[in-house]
Design brief:
There is one protein chain. The protein is α/β, with parallel strands linked by helices. The protein has a single domain, classed as 3-Layer(aba) Sandwich (Oxidized Rhodanese, domain 1). 36% of the residues lie in helices and 17% in strands. It contains five helices and five strands; from the N terminus they run βαβαβαβαβα. A five-stranded parallel β-sheet has the order 1-5-4-2-3. The longest helix is centred in the C-terminal third of the chain and has 12 residues.
Length: 100
């Protein structure tokens, strides 16, 4: 499974803890993000990848799904198991938190 929908993500979040990475820029994240999401901008991923666990599946979200797919491709090349959230925050209908 290389991708899931936002509806599938919402169901997962309701039943188990997961590692959800938000690869948008800090201002996008601050404006509204999923509470469980950890900010890791795509541009910082190469420097920060060593801090991620290869033991757990990583779920990756962005605004529309394009940057998160790039992150998934990179993570997969590095030996991680990563899943793209298709549609990204544009398709997310659940609650969001902001830090603005």
């Amino acid at each position: 499974m290389n991708s899931i929908t936002t509806n599938e993500l919402a169901k997962l979040l309701a039943v188990q803890p997961i590692t959800l990475l938000d690869v948008r820029e800090p201002d996008e994240y601050a404006a509204g993000h999923i509470a469980e999401a950890q900010l890791l901008p795509l541009g910082n991923l190469p420097q920060m990848v060593g801090n991620l666990s290869k033991q757990s599946q990583l779920y990756v979200i962005c605004r529309s799904g394009r940057r998160s797919q790039m992150a998934v491709d990179f993570l997969t090349d590095q030996g991680y198991t990563a899943v793209n959230v298709t549609g990204g925050m544009n398709a997310w209908t659940g609650e969001v938190e902001s830090t603005d």
